[in-house]
Design goal:
Elements lengths: L1 H7 L10 E5 L5 H5 L4 E6 L4 H4 L4 E5 L13 E7 L7 H14 E12 L1 H4 L15 H10 L2 E7 L15 H8 L2 H7 L2 E8 L13 H4 L29
Parallel strand pairs: 1-2, 1-4, 2-3, 4-5
Antiparallel strand pairs: 5-7, 6-7
């Protein structure tokens, strides 16, 4: 499945000769499948070594301490189904570290269960700590000095047990039909870039909600979504 996700969708964001970092790599599905000049898998779990393909560099560390990676050395960072496993302070700490290691024109790609559309089953998993929807995820990124350039609130389904496209051909078809995402998508896809120094998105700057007047009256916080449900998908046995 990840071969299709990468070749048909994620690869467009990754330069073939660039340096890619997967945060919370777990089974290394993304980092093994993506094409890049240099590939780094970061995880705290030493079992990650068992899943990485030859040529993938392994960094065993906390996501809040990427000091072994040089500042401004990463073209693309990627995280899938990761931030729900962290406390709020560690989410911000991780995002700030990603911002530090990204090049000035780098990108942070995030695939994240959207609590607003999978709230019924979100807490079925004991290791889920923090509910996030696309609004709260965007806010956290902005507070960490990252600017969201692209946000798909409903992208992939959240379950592998019912409506998720099981065959590779169905997956390719699903990725080509964004209109279907509106009905089946329960995970958000976000692209964030390094915000200009001194901008309102800086971690020590103003609250980003002040400039956009807060959320719309009909919006809810991450803990208040209502519409759809699903089960955990694309999950990795990872630790911070």
């Amino acid at each position: 499945m990840w071969d299709v996700l990468c070749s048909a969708f994620f690869q467009r964001y990754v330069p073939p000769s660039g340096t890619v970092l997967e945060v919370g790599a777990g089974y290394c599905e993304f980092i093994n499948s993506i094409k890049a000049g240099r590939k780094i898998a970061m995880d705290l779990n030493p079992d990650t070594r068992l899943h990485a393909d030859p040529g993938v560099e392994i960094v065993l560390t906390s996501s809040t301490d990427l000091s072994v990676i040089a500042s401004g050395s990463i073209d693309v960072a990627f995280a899938s189904n990761f931030f729900e496993h962290l406390e709020r302070a560690d989410i911000l700490g991780t995002m700030r570290e990603v911002r530090r290691v990204l090049r000035a024109d780098g990108r942070f790609l995030i695939l994240q269960p959207n609590y607003r559309y999978c709230y019924r089953d979100y807490w079925m998993f004991f290791d889920h700590l923090t509910p996030l929807d696309h609004h709260s995820l965007t806010e956290a990124l902005e507070l960490s000095g990252l600017h969201v350039s692209h946000c798909v609130a409903r992208f992939l389904p959240y379950t592998t047990k019912s409506r998720y496209p099981r065959s590779l051909s169905l997956m390719r078809a699903y990725l080509r039909l964004p209109i279907v995402w509106r009905f089946l998508g329960q995970q958000a896809f976000v692209v964030a870039e390094v915000a200009p120094q001194g901008g309102s998105q800086d971690a020590l700057g103003a609250d980003p909600r002040a400039e956009r007047g807060g959320r719309a009256a009909g919006d809810r916080d991450a803990a208040g979504g209502h519409p759809d449900s699903g089960g955990d998908s694309l999950r990795n046995p990872r630790r911070q």
